[in-house]
Amino acid sequence: MTTEPRPDETQHTSEHSTRSRSHTRRAFLGGTSAAAVGVAGGAALTGCARADTDADAAAKAAEALPSPTAIGEAQIPFHGERQAGIATPPQAHCVFRAFDLAGAPDNRRDYAATPRLGGDDTKRFAAALKGVLRVWTDDGARLVRGESGLADMDPELAENPARLTLTVGFGPRLFDLIGRPELRPRWLRQLPAFEIDDLDDRFNGGDLLLHIAADDPLTVANASRLLSAGVRGLVVSRWTQQGFRKASGAHPKDMTQRNLFGQLDGTVQPDTGGDLVFCGADEDQEWMRGGSGLVLRRIVMNMATWEEVDPPQRDLSLGRRQSTGAPLTGEHEFDPVDLDAKDKAGLEVIPPQSHVARAHARTPEELFLRRPFNFTSDAGGGDPESGLLFAAYCANVDRQFLPVQERLAEADLLNTWTTPTGSAVFALPPGLGESQAEAGGFLGDGLFT
Q1: Average pLDDT estimate for 255-283
Q2: What dihedral angle (degrees, nearest 10) is formed by the CA atoms of 446, 424, 292, 371?
Q3: Whose CA is closest to 91, among 255, 215, 207?
Q4: 3-state DSSP of 238-307
Q5: Cα angle at 143 between 82 and 140, to 5 degrees?
Q6: 191 contacts: CB under 8 Å, gap ≥ 6
Q7: Which tens digits make up the pLDDT trace of 337-363?
């Protein structure tokens, strides 16, 4: 959990806020812990004092310590009712890779375009897709167990899976390419244009998605190389985006991720096993039940101008205290957000244009699973581009994600410092059970039955 301010800090902040809040808020909106007290040290000293008289206890304690390579040895099962990598506790490193089927019309300029294809074309694309999915299924199942893929010349690189997951997705155009447009979920289409967007063709769309994540960057890089090489000739790479989160073991497991602005990002989350994340009986496409929808937005953050903003103004933009993640109407990160609360001057405590106010779910269906990944990239000189790969998982993009995104695009104070430069939507099919795999099944085979 996030460390709360010391009592003296809280009192000072409160008194200062009471004196200057009204003036500061009007000016701003018009224009746009205590350290732990030696517990670990005390325990260590106690252990030293008893070492000579309690050798057995010390030996047992040493045996209870985790393996030095526990992070590398950890595995997440590949087979299951749902694909791993969606509701899985997020790993420290990831790469999102989009591909187009080889030979398909180039749609980089109009990534929602539907090509006109003949029967032979669709059969060829369907056969290519089957080949890709079989390779990714077979090699993926090996890699997550710490085994090398078929024809892998560097098997040593696969020895430490480090909670490796591989998640496959389908873009809107894919269904036209294989001659099965009737199987496309109703919500699967590119997002509408928003005024805040400055989309770059290099980060939009895609026929196929491969999301690879693990707690070791070498594991991610090796899996990405192997799985792309295994389908060479069947697909062409469209874009690659790498992201990272806090390192495994660096913070408590239940601590919310911070983005590069210093904000706790992803406080409010739905039940990760529920029907807000995974498609249920109300999904019109039966083959997608147990699957999920993914919206991936690449958001560039203007670090230089954000660093010019003082903490009180940052908090007003967020609607939360950056230090603790607590809403401005509460004391702790997970306290409820009260958008109706007023201060002594009659102003909303949480500004209506703040990020929290715009992103707050107004109906139970507007919740979705947020998975933010930080990124930095250097194109060869100058300051690196920094930002967020914002992955939103939901059962129905139209019903859950789109209303929230429309409000954010309409009026969100954070838009002053952020620019979406990439956007893509994918359908993630359900998982593959072991019995299905033994019978010759593969990820996404529901498209062909």
Answers
A1: 93
A2: 150
A3: 215
A4: EEEEEEECCCCCCCCCCCCCECCCCCECCCCCCCCCCCCCCCCCCCCCHHHCCCEEEEEEEEEECHHHHC
A5: 45
A6: 295, 402, 405, 423, 425
A7: 999 999 999 999 999 999 999 999 999
Dist CA 225 CA 116 (whole Å): 32
Rounded CA separation 370/139 (Å): 28
The DSSP line for 27-68 is HHHHH--PPP-SHHHHHHHHHHHHTTT-HHHHHHHHHHSPPT
Count the Cβ atoms, other than its own, within 10 Å of residue 219: 26
> Can you give the pLDDT at residue 265?
94
Kindly tell me the burial class for residue 188, based on how many C-beta atoms sit within 10 Å of its own C-beta (0-12, 13-18, 19 or more). Answer: buried
Q: What is the enclosing helix (H) or strand (E) of 406?
A: helix 402-410
Residue 437 pLDDT: 95
CA distances to 146, 235, 276, 342, 436 from 122, in Å: 36, 15, 33, 60, 26
Question: Within 13 A of 336's CA, how many CA atoms are on the CB side?
Answer: 4
In this prediction, residues 418-433 reach a mean pLDDT of: 98
Angle CA(447)–CA(172)–CA(77) in degrees, nearest 5? 55
Is residue 89 within 8 Å of 447, Cβ to Cβ?
no
Question: Is residue 145 a contact partner of residue 159, using CB atoms and an 8 Å limit?
Answer: no
CA distance linking residue 146 with residue 75, whole number of Å: 8
Model pTM? Answer: 0.85
Per-residue burial over 70-102, b if 16 or more Cβ lie within 10 Å, else e, is ebbebebebbeebbbbbbbebbbbbbbbbbbbe
Given a cut of 70, is residue 289 above it in pLDDT? yes
Regarding beta strands 93-101 and 208-214, do their DSSP bridges make them parallel or antiparallel, or are they unpaired? antiparallel
Q: What is the pLDDT of residue 109?
A: 57
Residue keyed to tokens 């009471």: 18
Residues 6+ apart with CB under 8 A from 12: none
Q: Which sign does the torsion angle of CA 53, 55, 56, 60 carry?
A: positive
Average pLDDT, rounded, for the chain: 87
Per the model's pLDDT, the better-predicted residue between 44 and 123 turns out to be 123
Of 97, 92, 95, 96, the C-alpha closest to 74 is 92
What's the half-sphere exposure (Cβ side, CA atoms, 13 Å) at 295?
25
Candidates 190, 180, 185, 248; CA nearest to 214 is 248
Helix count and strand count (H, E) for the chain: 12, 8
